[in-house]
Every structure is written in structure tokens, then in C-alpha cells.
Amino acid sequence: MPVPPWLESLLSTAFFTVCRTHGDAARGECNMYCLDCKGDAFCFYCRSFKHKDHQIIQIRRSSYHDVVRVTEIQKVLDISGVQTYVINSARVLFLNERPQPKSGKGVAHICEICGRSLLDPFRFCSLGCKLVGVRRNGNASFSIEAKNEELTRREGMSKEEEELREGSQQGIYPPTPPPPPSNARRRKGIPHRAPFGS
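The line above is the sequence of PLATZ transcription factor family protein; the predicted C-alpha cells follow.
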């Protein structure tokens, strides 16, 4: 099963609408999704009544785009190859492609599907782009079992094979620069207030 049956529904669901039942409640916005029911988004209060023992993920917002915490989604989905970001001290990833003007020259990493510039050497900018990549190329997967099989296969390799494999991939990614010296961000001198104008 390369694509879970609930993934397409999750990616096409409209979140952050007002709940029809609990619209006037404090937490009445629909930002939850049930992986078992594969239905519409629902609010915090609907979760308590209709989805008590189900697998639920909470969708969050970042710059008007839907994101999900990595800690929640990686329990049910292999997210390898998708760019993650730290937002409000939580590691998240975007659900769907985000429009971006064509990337300029000098961009080292781009999404294989939409061409969005990426910060790190990932293949996709979002779960939606990974879904397109899985369908188009078949050389990626959402299955956690497939990921575990790959890890087991690697563990079974001899030390020599692993060194050869790592050596062949060394030229793919540029070496990471050393961290800046610890005093690089220290202020020089004493800060002074600007003189009061008259």
C-alpha cells in the first residue's frame, strides 16, 4: 500500500471553517481530521463525541497554509523526503503545495514537483507534492513498513557495502559549513540610547 486511503481526503479537506454544531464555542473551528472515518474536518468538541477512540491529527496554520506536526504524522506516514520547518518551536510540514514565484538563480534545492525552493536537500515541499511524486515516479513511498524494510536491509549489509554506498553518495550533497564561533553574535561595546531630539 504505497498511498494510505485517507491521504487524498486529508489533502483535499477544507480546514479552519466554523463548526456547524459548535460554531459559537471558543474552540469551534474545524481543525481536526479522523484517519479512521476519512470524513470532513471537525472541531475539538466533535472529537469528544464522535471520534473518541479514533486516530486523530490536528491541523495547524502557518502563513495561511495548513501544516501538521511531524510528531503526529510520522506515526502513521513515512514523511521522508518532505521539507520540515520549525514554527513556534514545533517541527511541522505543509500539507499542500504553496505557490511561489519562479525561484531565482543560485537556489540549491528545489521541490521535484512544483519547483519551490527548499532550505535543505529534500525532494518535496509538502505531502501533496510527495503524493504526486509517488504516483508519477513510484520511487518514493508513504508506507512506514517500506521504510522499516529499507532500514532492515541496510542493517543486513556488510560494513564494506555500507561504506561503498556512503562513499558513492558523498558527492551528492555539499559539505555543511562549520558552525560560527561562539562569540560571533556578541555585541561590541555598550549600547547607547539615541539622544533625545528637541
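Note on the example: The mean pLDDT is 79. The radius of gyration is 22 Å.
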